[in-house]
Design goal:
Strand content: under 5%
Order of helices and strands: HHHHHHHHHHH
Structural class: mainly alpha
Number of domains: 1
Number of helices: 11
Shape: globular
Distance between the termini: 42 Å
Largest sheet: none
Helix content: over 70%
Length: 287
């Protein structure tokens, strides 16, 4: 499926290449730099949110160590299925003295909070998206919200986790989850998603002219596409699926070939940032 999407987008770009308005494309290095600053702000929110999730489970980890275990497990997300990303994080947490019970549960909560944060940013932008006549299927992105909220904030969460552990891991676990820290983590992930969407808007502005009034729309389509990629478990890191969704939504605001180029550029942009953060995290680990 991933290959089909990539081939389809490549063909579309080839046949629409002449529609690119080259006269409107001008590279602005300052905006490129600012987009990376935005990603950094989003990343810091995510690190602090991870710390709150650990605190909610009775654990704890410093900012630098949290930076390392998050970025150190980045590569695992490009293997199909989220289980590898969880496994990588659990392994790194164990080296830092965090038990598998806490780190594994924290990863499940983090992924749920990430999805909720992204969908929250999408919901804030939904009125603007509807106004510009986006396709009806964007409403489907609201379906996971009640289930994610039930998982994240329901008092049944500890009971569910205990049942899963006894059923699949053949272990009895005792968890006391502090909801206040979970709520803080959710808020931080929502802020992170909004900042990241804003950073993507700056990336667009860095080489293609788009009106500032469309900032809410871009935040919405970016986070909506991220959620689509996240929910596609068969695609490693949402590869191809996220780009396809971003292209479909972006074409309402720019020519199709520009939308295709932007979707690919967004992947390279994020991957480069993750590599930089991982190298800094590795330095923290050595220290």
């Amino acid at each position: 499926m991933v290959s089909i999407i990539i081939i389809y987008l490549s063909r579309k770009l080839y046949f629409t290449w002449n529609d690119i308005p080259f006269d409107k494309i001008k590279l602005n290095y300052i905006l490129v730099l600012l987009s990376f600053v935005g990603l950094a702000g989003s990343f810091f929110c995510s690190v602090i949110a991870w710390q709150h999730i650990l605190k909610a489970l009775g654990g704890g980890m410093g900012f630098r160590k949290s930076w390392w275990v998050i970025t150190g497990s980045y590569l695992a997300k490009y293997i199909p299925g989220h289980i590898w990303s969880i496994g990588g994080r659990v392994y790194l947490c164990k080296a830092e003295g965090i038990s598998e019970k806490i780190s594994g549960t924290a990863m499940i909560l983090e992924m749920t909070a990430l999805l909720l944060g992204s969908l929250t940013a999408f919901c804030f932008s939904l009125p603007f998206l509807i106004k510009h006549g986006l396709p009806f299927w964007i409403w489907y992105l609201l379906i996971p919200i009640p289930f994610a909220l039930a998982v994240f904030f329901s008092p049944l969460l500890p009971i569910s986790l205990k049942w899963l552990a006894s059923r699949f891991l053949k272990k009895e676990i005792k968890l006391e989850i502090k909801q206040a820290h979970l709520f803080k983590a959710f808020c931080l992930f929502a802020i992170s998603a909004i900042i990241q969407g804003g950073a993507f808007f700056l990336l667009i502005r860095s080489f293609y002219s788009i009106e500032y009034r469309l900032l809410p729309d871009i935040i919405g389509i970016y986070n909506g596409s991220w959620a689509v990629g996240f929910l596609s478990f068969i695609a490693p890191g949402g590869l191809g699926v996220r780009e396809g969704a971003l292209t479909v939504l972006s074409k309402f605001y720019m020519p199709l070939p520009i939308a295709i180029i932007l979707s690919a550029l967004a992947r390279l942009w994020m991957t480069l940032f993750e590599i930089i953060m991982a190298l800094i995290g590795l330095k923290f680990r050595k220290q």
